[in-house]
Prior knowledge:
The structure is a homodimer. Chain A contains 4 helices and 9 strands; from the N terminus they run ββββαβββαααββ. In chain A, a hairpin with an 8-residue loop joins strand 8 and strand 9. The radius of gyration of chain A is 20 Å and the shape is elongated. At the A-B interface, strand 1, strand 4 and strand 5 of A face strand 1, strand 4 and strand 5 of B. The structure holds a DNA duplex. Chains A, B: It comes from Streptomyces citrinus.
Amino acid sequence: MQGYDKHAYEPFAVTVDLAVFTVRAGALRVLLVERGQEPYAGRWALPGGFVQPDEAAETAARRELAEETGFGDVDGRLHLEQLRTYSEPDRDPRMRVVSVAFAALVPDPPEVSGGSDAARAAWLPYGSTAYGPLAFDHDRILSDAHDRVGGKLEYTCLATAFCPPEFTLGELRQVYEVVWGTELDPANFRRKVLATPGFVEQIPGASRLTGGRGKPAALYRAGGAVSLHPPLLRPAPEPSEGTRP
Amino acid sequence: MQGYDKHAYEPFAVTVDLAVFTVRAGALRVLLVERGQEPYAGRWALPGGFVQPDEAAETAARRELAEETGFGDVDGRLHLEQLRTYSEPDRDPRMRVVSVAFAALVPDPPEVSGGSDAARAAWLPYGSTAYGPLAFDHDRILSDAHDRVGGKLEYTCLATAFCPPEFTLGELRQVYEVVWGTELDPANFRRKVLATPGFVEQIPGASRLTGGRGKPAALYRAGGAVSLHPPLLRPAPEPSEGTRP
DNA sequence: CCAAAAGTGTTTCAGCTACACCCATGA
DNA sequence: TCATGGGTGTAGCTGAAACACTTTTGG
């Protein structure tokens, strides 16, 4: 950071890529766009685009998401979080592109009106074989984003970002189950969540039917807390051993 | 990511910044360099520099660290981990600079031979008032890096990255205490570490004096595990409440 | 009545905290 | 001998897992 010369180096293009998740119909879904041009024409890719000269990466991420998928930040309920930056020199065959990746969570999936830029946009089930390999290194980015979200559910109150303003504890539990791919004990989950001050707040008197059948469930709002002490650990992958790479 | 034109946008400079931590003499220290030029001449800053057109950010980070501080990756014992990317348009007064920040941990601090680029390099105590505000937004980067490292100690085996190849459990415990700024019960810490398979491996027969006094301590090596199940939680900051922003 | 989901109670067990206590060494 | 840090033992608490049970709805 000592010797500066604006033109001493070949210019870098800086882009953003977004892995936007939601939970719909009991499944984890990702927002993908179909590429209309080479390279990777016809392949699915993460939404994203160039960072403009006067904007921060996060600003660019919100703008591109709206432009490309017609999905704006409705009611400010879009949770956006920087994932990491991918900078391998050959990750784009045409030029040097450094991409700042974001993981995003949205509660209810509004309709996707394929925006100005992209040929097609759709919420596809995460991990599905329906969309082959993604363009560029987007498979890796998507996988990293999924890992990050799964981990953050353990020690933050992030799960409410998948839920509408008013939700039941069963819906909140489904977020954990769908992201982790496991089943949780409803009784223990309930106690754990309610025992964490500020995770959720009950809406007095309100209740709603969920599965069509069953007792109506009380409604809750997201509380002000952001972190979980102690954390809500997912069942150990191995039989309680230190994980090796 | 649809319409490409290499010169359609003002070029971005892409740099790396490193927050390199070590534990020396019972204190957490950071590697800083003194700036020789404007802006912020004479101020302390994180080591870092430009990413070259043909290298990934992590490669650039290792190279700059060696060039600027003369501190190479001795024995491959440098733990380097991407933190996040800082891209606010005004973070450098001269031009648009997007910086990929890294957190790094090293075991024993070899001498720092202020390298080619920097005026001076030194290991300064973290949080000390000795170095005023850092250049650019480096105070924030350093703070973010400290948070990240502190958090990762809880649920990964990262602490061994601060230790030499052979270390005692007291030294390992000191890493936690120094980074978290708390005291830990030696007995319980010992049991917890040994109960996690793959965290450390005892070196049979070896022992060493540590504080000059006291019983010689057994020596251990880092094991192959990377994550901690269940985690080693630090004492809650508040009286066991969900943390609010 | 039955199925399904919400919600409560209870037993059991693992893990953590706290603290007492012994061991080996230098001063 | 005392101070210091390593290392072991143990009683008690907390919280999570597992599972039985009640409640309230739709079919």
